[in-house]
Design goal:
By secondary structure, the protein is an alpha/beta fold. The chain is built from 15 helices and 12 strands. Strand 7, helix 7 and strand 8 form a beta-alpha-beta unit. The longest helix has 19 residues. The termini are far apart.
Length: 353
């Protein structure tokens, strides 16, 4: 749906872009199978002429993803390993591909139909982006858990706490938009929001919740910001708020905020307890009352320490090292008599009994 690298808001596509670039820099032969308007320093096998978001398209992208999978089928035998970032859409491809296919699961796995797919395709190799994401499916063929990493070392830094709260992401209910606005209102701090409003549901929530907050002077809406402007917004904030009560599989905004020295106030849900160290790089809260305490206490955190920990734990090099190890393992197994795409996993053994 999004060109590589993405121009604005995107999570999965940003990870694909930085992973691809670093693999090329390390001397690997890399091919991107994606939109023709991608701009990458490697071979590109084009799928559709223009990325869907660039063309203004909204709605179900499944037919276009099927085009991508078909293109992957057509060139699969050229590669040692194929790495899919389209979640469950290419599970069948992974099972029947002539070469190993690795899936990094970027989304939540409890949505309708996804558990059934995970049960059926328990043999295919998967990578989780957090321990939280994979915890309900212990029998699946998880090759690794790889926390996201980004080139964070050039992020701007501010050692002085700002006088506003930051919200970066999508205008979506699961992102805690209403809670962020309510927190800002209750602690009498402006909420600066750099967010995507693209899908119909996002537009409705913006009209019903965000627009009134803007009129009341509680929120300042910045729209989708380019990376440099977004990072500066984060760096100058008192804290970044992530109050969605949902099992977020990762949370790139958290590591980007911490890399600028700005602590994160996050709901204790999903992967965020794996990213935010309570009382050190931010605070984990259970409700708005605790979020108010956190807003008061966050001024006393050492922002240099926040940045240092983020760079140590979530740098690009660490992530790519871990993926390289997975690729080598899969390529090695592909050359052995055992088929790495159909290991004798626990679920298969149980089904055979």
């Amino acid at each position: 749906m999004v060109a590589i690298p993405p121009a604005g808001y995107a999570g999965t596509e940003r990870i694909v872009a930085v992973l691809l670039n670093e693999l090329v820099r390390r001397g690997h032969q890399v091919t991107l199978i994606g939109p023709a308007d991608s701009r990458v320093d490697c071979e590109l096998v084009p799928t559709i002429d223009q990325a869907l978001w660039n063309s203004g398209m909204s709605g179900d992208p499944t037919p276009y993803i099927e085009v991508t999978i078909e293109r992957a089928w057509s060139v699969a035998e050229r590669f040692d390993v194929l790495h899919s970032h389209v979640d469950t859409h290419s599970f069948s491809f992974a099972r029947h591909s002539p070469v190993p296919v690795l899936h990094t699961m970027h989304g939540r796995l409890d949505m309708p139909g996804v558990p059934e797919l995970l049960d059926e395709f328990c043999d295919i190799p998967l990578v989780a982006i957090s321990e939280s994401q994979r915890r309900w499916w212990p029998r699946n063929n998880w090759i690794a858990t790889v926390h996201h990493g980004l080139p964070l070392e050039n992020a701007p830094f501010s050692g002085k706490p700002g006088e506003y709260l930051a919200f970066v992401g999508r205008i979506a209910p699961e992102k805690g938009v209403e809670a962020a606005i309510e927190l800002a209102r209750s602690v009498r701090l402006p909420l600066r929001m750099a967010a995507k409003v693209h899908e119909d549901e996002e537009k409705r929530l913006f009209a019903s919740v965000v627009a009134p907050a803007i009129e009341q002077g509680v929120a300042i809406f910045e729209g989708e910001l380019a990376t440099a402007a977004r990072d500066q917004l984060l760096a100058n904030a008192l804290a970044t708020v992530m109050l969605g009560a949902w099992p977020e599989p990762f949370g790139l905004v958290a590591i980007e905020s911490m890399a600028t020295g700005t602590p994160v106030i996050a709901r204790r849900a999903g992967a965020l307890p794996e990213l935010v160290e309570h009382g050190l790089t931010g605070f984990l809260v259970d409700d708005l009352y605790e979020a108010r305490f956190a807003t008061r206490a966050v001024r006393h955190l050492d922002r240099s320490t926040v940045r240092k920990i983020a760079l140590q734990r979530f740098g690009l090099g660490r992530m790519v090292d871990e993926y390289e190890a997975v690729y080598r393992r899969m390529a090695r197994l592909a050359r052995s008599p055992i088929d790495p795409r159909r290991p004798e996993t626990t679920c298969q053994m149980e089904a055979a009994r």
